[in-house]
Write a structure and sequence with these properties.
The complex is a heterodimer.
Chain A (H helix, E strand, L loop, with lengths): L5 H9 L3 E5 L5 E6 L6 E7 L7 E4 L2 E4 L4 H9 L1 E2 L2 E2 H7 L3 E6 L4 E7 L4 H9 L8 H19 L2 H13 L13 H5 L3 H11 L5 E7 L3 H11 L9 E3 L12 E6 L5 E7 L9 H15 L4 H8 L8 E7 L2 E9 L3 H18 L3 H17 L4 H13 L4 H9 L3 H10 L6 E8 L6
Parallel strand pairs in A: 2-10, 12-16
Antiparallel strand pairs in A: 1-2, 3-9, 3-10, 4-5, 4-11, 6-7, 8-9, 13-15, 13-16, 14-15
Helix pairs in contact in A: 1-15, 4-9, 10-13, 10-16, 13-15
Chain B lengths: L1 E7 L2 E6 L5 E11 L2 H14 L9 H10 L4 E9 L2 E11 L9 H14 L10 H17 L4 H13 L21 H13 L2 E7 L3 H14 L21 E6 L5 E8 L6 H16 L4 H9 L5 E7 L5 E8 L4 H18 L3 H16 L5 H15 L5 H9 L3 H10 L1 E9 L3
Parallel strand pairs in B: 2-6, 7-11
Antiparallel strand pairs in B: 1-2, 3-5, 3-6, 4-5, 8-10, 8-11, 9-10
Helix pairs in contact in B: 1-4, 1-6, 3-7, 8-11, 8-14, 9-10, 10-14, 11-13
Classes of the chains: A alpha+beta, B alpha+beta.
């Protein structure tokens, strides 16, 4: 097992550095003090992401236009006609925002002067006023963003896969929506979504770097107010069929080599949700086809795979999708070989020596988080939305459970739940 | 804090104070950039990273890296201006956390083995390995078209540097791959080891041992016994701006354009270039972002980047729907002309300087930041400029410096990818 003392490592990395609290308004605040660093990173995340389109509107079920969360993110960076990038830049801070499947995150990075940027960040979330003109003006910019992603083969392969696996869950829609759904979004919808989801009790703040936790809590306390009134929208779950929609999809682009993404529609994440299972899933995926396996070498040497090959999973309350992706002249053969490999591993179980070696990599990755203010802030936010903590993670990293990993292998990766998405070169005659 | 020592006239060893959770060792070999050898050198990176004499295939090598707590080993060959750089890089979790105190040394030994003890059969690279990696290189070259924006800019640079080694295609030529065999490739590697300049960087808890190990490895193996002098002359600008288009079946029109002054800049002028680029299109409050994207709504992406190869220049990249292409392109050119004519406002200058200096201050937060800054500085100007020195230069930049530099830049050309229609 790993030659690292988990308790002392956890103490060294976390004790007297990590502080958590909740403001009166309900905002959860995480502060990680890093006295020797030269920059501060702050992330404010909202539990409203692109997949969260199923809502009840004053009690009645309906579906938000896809891309709504992303549109809100764009508009929040402009307040009262002033671009917020300018406000941060004025203080020498850089800022950004992004929308993922499960949340929207606003970030800034500044020098040791962090109080004013933090006040600007928190000020975004006081009542904004989206105007008809401002929202309509943003549409062509977002339309160009959508078209930009259509030119990205990796993006297209992934979303074609999601559409083969899921019928109703929002993961099958592009994060920015479609050119059609964009037109259904108006300023009133954005105002209502803001009031419904941008509430402190649906948000988390992480501030890391050479900061003083007491000061961060004071600012957060001062600048956040509890949401008022009853929200128009409440998130609800989608009715998703248990089985996949289709087992393959084919698209064409101006490419040199076919790209593929094979994925499994697993049991919904809420049935699987556990930080331990997430860590084990990472290990299992690597042990199926990672670079340390003979299987990978055979595929690589046979020119079936290249260095671009990788694996991973997407998870949210309503979905868990495991995948293997890369480029290959024979994607169907790769899929068949991976399915055979999984079947063989389900029978034999994971190799304990390989499992132990891979466990050491998890230890190294965990410790590495703590070098950069940005990566600590990102990890704190990620933990918050998964209802876990950096303390929990190190316990599991330090005590990996091969029986648990074999259990995951047994319960997941069913061939009947697998779909293959392929993009082939436009001028190839392949079917 | 970073320290450098000139071990030999063509061998510099740099080290940073170790205050990180990760350790890193990097060795770069700077070799001449030639059309005849660049494909082979590109292939070398694949072959060298796949095995060593002790770990004879990618699986045993990967498993060994796992036992070192997920150390990552990276070997690449890339063109930087007028040179080919073979970059060997290993990083690992700091020994401070481990009970195995030799973890750092073992990681450094592995890197030195990769450089000097590759897996050989009968004194040359194994044909089987070379054969597999040739296919990977061939695919990698053809794969370049998948990232359309990068492909477009690469096309722009090839056109701009036409007739100059700086314009050779990244990774070389597919037609040069076939004839390469294990013996020729090993001979090429020996030549690279002999005729090169060396830059090494280390940050970790075993400085004395690792420094001695690296120096021994370089000197005892005759690496860099023939120092190389690189031609740093500036590029000649084209007489007329070029325009190249390619039907690529893209949803958007994707284009890159270049402005260049055709002469080399000193460190101070490079600081001027950095600030000018930031104001034009290098940050989220730049003129291109605020005016072309936000005010006119002509595109989603519109950014500028500095180029220092063959002199100082700026590359602008954007993409938009076909019906807006001309308006978008013309607006970008107007923004460049306006900045060159009037210079930035005092507020723009203050913001850009503040953003750049804060970002330079943050470099020391990670070992990756420190090493990237070191190599970027060395490979850009040939000498190390610390973040503090760079900050002083940035602070000295004036509006008229920017006006003067941008006014000297000429519009040199554009490349565009579009739908087939």
């Amino acid at each position: 097992m790993s030659k690292i003392d988990i308790e002392s490592t956890a103490a060294l990395l976390l004790n007297n550095r990590l502080f958590t609290g909740t403001t009166d308004s309900g905002l959860r605040v995480y502060v990680y003090e890093m006295p020797g660093k030269s920059s501060v990173s702050a992330q404010l995340a909202v539990g409203f992401g692109s997949t969260m389109v199923h809502v009840t509107d004053r009690g009645k079920r309906c579906r938000l236009p896809s891309g709504t969360a992303h549109f809100l993110e764009h508009k929040l960076f402009e307040r009262n006609g002033v671009d917020s990038f300018t406000l941060f830049a004025d203080l020498g801070a850089s800022s950004n925002a992004y929308t993922t499947f499960n949340r929207t995150t606003f970030v800034f990075r500044s020098s040791t002067e962090y109080e004013e940027p933090l006040e600007i960040l928190l000020d975004f979330f006081r009542e904004p006023l989206f105007t008809k003109e401002g929202v309509e003006k943003e549409k062509p910019i977002i339309a160009d963003e959508i078209r930009m992603y259509m030119d990205d083969p990796g993006w297209r392969t992934s979303f074609n896969l999601f559409r083969s696996l899921y019928r109703n869950i929002g993961i099958n829609d592009d994060i920015a929506g479609s050119l059609e759904s964009l037109q259904q979004i108006d300023y009133m919808l954005l105002n209502d979504c803001f009031r419904s989801f941008y509430r402190p009790d649906n948000m988390a703040l992480a501030v890391t770097g050479p900061v003083e936790h007491g000061r961060v809590f004071e600012i957060a306390q001062k600048l956040t107010a509890a949401g008022t009134g009853s929200p128009r929208f409440t998130l609800t779950s989608a009715q998703e069929p248990e089985h996949i929609i289709k087992d393959s999809s084919l698209d064409r682009m101006n490419l040199s080599i076919p790209m593929f993404d094979m994925g499994f529609k697993e049991k919904a994440f809420r049935e699987f949700a556990d930080v331990k299972n997430e860590l084990l899933m990472d290990m299992v995926l690597d042990l199926i086809a990672g670079e340390s396996t003979e299987f990978f070498r055979e595929m690589y040497d046979s020119n079936l795979l290249s260095d671009s090959f990788g694996s991973g999973f997407y998870s949210g309350d309503e979905y868990l999708c495991t995948y293997f992706e890369g480029d290959s002249h024979q994607p169907e053969k790769v899929r068949d070989m991976i399915l055979d490999r999984i079947a063989e591993l389900k029978r034999s179980g994971l190799d304990p020596d390989l499992f132990e070696e891979r466990a050491r990599t998890s230890v190294g990755s965990y410790i590495s988080i703590f070098d950069s203010p940005g990566s600590v802030a990102g990890s704190l936010i990620s933990c918050h939305f998964k209802n876990t903590s950096l303390y929990d993670i190190i316990q599991h990293v330090g005590n990996p459970d091969i029986d648990g990993a074999n259990g995951i292998l047994r319960d997941c990766f069913e061939p009947s739940q697998c779909s293959l998405s392929v993009i082939r070169p436009t001028d190839s005659g392949d079917q | 804090m970073l320290h450098t020592e000139q071990i030999r006239n063509n061998f510099t060893f740099a080290w940073a104070d170790h205050v990180y959770n990760r350790e890193r060792l990097v060795v770069e070999l700077h070799c001449p950039l030639e059309k005849e050898t660049m494909t082979g050198i590109s292939l070398l990176a694949y072959v060298l990273s796949s095995a060593t004499d002790r770990y004879r295939d990618i699986v045993s090598l990967s498993r060994y890296l796992d036992t070192l707590y997920g150390a990552s080993l990276y070997v690449s060959a890339s063109r930087a201006g007028n040179r080919m750089i073979i970059h060997f890089d290993v990083d690992n979790v700091s020994g401070l956390f481990l009970t195995e105190k030799d973890n750092g040394i073992r990681t450094a030994e592995l890197l030195c083995d990769v450089i000097t003890r590759p897996y050989l059969v009968d004194g040359c690279f194994p044909e089987e390995t070379v054969c597999v990696e040739k296919e990977k290189l061939r695919e990698e070259i053809s794969f370049l078209i998948n990232n359309k924006e990068a492909y477009c800019t690469r096309m722009l640079l090839q056109e701009f540097f036409r007739g100059n080694v700086r314009g050779l295609p990244d990774l070389g030529y597919t037609e040069d791959i076939d004839p390469i065999n294990g013996r020729d490739l090993y001979d090429l590697y020996r030549k690279c080891l002999e005729s090169c300049n060396i830059n090494a960087f280390y940050c970790g808890s075993d400085l004395d041992e690792v420094k001695a190990l690296v120096c021994r490895t370089i000197i005892d193996n005759g690496i860099g016994v023939r120092p190389v002098t690189f031609d740093n002359s500036a590029v000649s600008l084209p007489d007329m701006p070029f325009s190249r288009t390619e039907a690529a079946g893209t949803e958007q029109d994707i284009f890159s354009m270049i402005y260049h002054c055709g002469r080399r800049s000193d460190s101070r002028e490079l600081a001027v270039l950095k600030v000018a680029n930031s104001i034009l299109g290098g940050m989220a409050t730049s003129r291109l972002f605020m005016n072309v994207r936000e005010k006119k709504g002509l595109c989603y992406t519109c950014v500028s980047n500095r180029i220092t190869s063959g002199g100082s220049g700026i590359i602008i990249e954007s993409s938009t729907s076909a019906d807006k292409y001309e308006d978008n392109r013309d607006s970008i050119m107007e923004e460049f002309s306006a900045l060159a004519a009037s210079g930035p406002t005092g507020e723009e200058l203050r913001q850009a300087k503040l953003g750049i200096t804060n970002s330079l201050k943050g470099i020391s937060d990670t070992v990756a930041g420190v090493s990237a800054h070191y190599f970027s500085s060395m490979n850009g100007t040939g000498r190390y400029l610390s973040p503090e020195d760079e900050i002083a230069l940035i602070e000295s930049v004036t509006s008229s410096d920017i006006k003067s530099l941008l006014s000297e830049m000429r519009y040199c050309g554009i490349c565009r990818l579009h739908d087939d229609e």
